[in-house]
Design brief:
Strand order of the largest sheet: 1-2-10-7-12-5
CATH architecture: Sandwich
Oligomer: single chain
CATH topology: Jelly Rolls
Shape: globular
Radius of gyration: 16 Å
Strand content: 35-45%
CATH superfamily: Jelly Rolls
Helix content: under 10%
Largest sheet: 6 strands, antiparallel
Number of domains: 1
Distance between the termini: 37 Å
């Protein structure tokens, strides 16, 4: 049925890949993206307060790596609804065994999966197709004065993007490289 959701832990503590089971018939397809009862098995306190849709017009474009400092740190449920992206999360939680490690997942409109990213992670993606669209569901409202970011090409992170990075915004290029004094996020 179109209401089945399956969850698999990713290699970073708390990061979860969400698989939907599409229902297909002569009219098309249906897949459930979110079900509070099903997600309670993974996160009991998950309440989304903001939903955003992002469209990236050019293949190779990198957006991110963005996060919000507490008290505005937010969890995100990310799904690709058109085209394909390489979605990346970086663990910024100082008390985590996977601190400063990254994990990437190919999300596409054809593959019925999403990524549940907990608070304390930076997030970004690279468009693998032209006109890639992703839907983000957030547990906290965007707070510009608490926004932070990491460089997509920071050698300390060594993120392996599938394509040459292109079309990176001036703001994303301006983030400082990580240094040993990076405080991380306390959870």
């Amino acid at each position: 049925m179109g209401g089945i959701l399956r969850f698999e832990p990713a290699p970073l503590a708390g990061l979860t890949v969400v698989f939907g089971q599409p229902r297909v018939d002569e009219r098309g397809r249906f897949v459930r993206v979110y079900d509070a009862d099903k997600f309670a098995a993974v996160r009991r306190d998950l309440t989304f307060v903001q939903v955003n849709l992002s469209r990236t017009t050019r293949r190779g474009t990198v957006r991110g790596m963005h996060f919000q400092w507490p008290p505005a740190a937010d969890a995100k449920l990310v799904r690709c609804v058109h085209g394909a992206v390489f979605d990346v999360a970086v663990d910024l939680r100082t008390d985590s065994p996977t601190f400063l490690r990254w994990h990437g997942v190919k999300l596409s409109a054809a593959a019925e999966l999403g990524l549940l990213i907990p608070e304390g992670f930076a997030h970004g993606f690279q468009a693998l197709t032209d006109d890639a669209e992703i839907l983000y569901m957030h547990t906290a409202a965007y707070t510009p004065e608490l926004e932070g970011g990491l460089r997509h090409d920071d050698p300390r992170l060594d993120i392996r993007w599938p394509l040459s990075a292109s079309n990176v915004s001036a703001r994303d290029r301006s983030f400082a490289l990580l240094d040993p004094t990076f405080p991380g996020i306390s959870t």
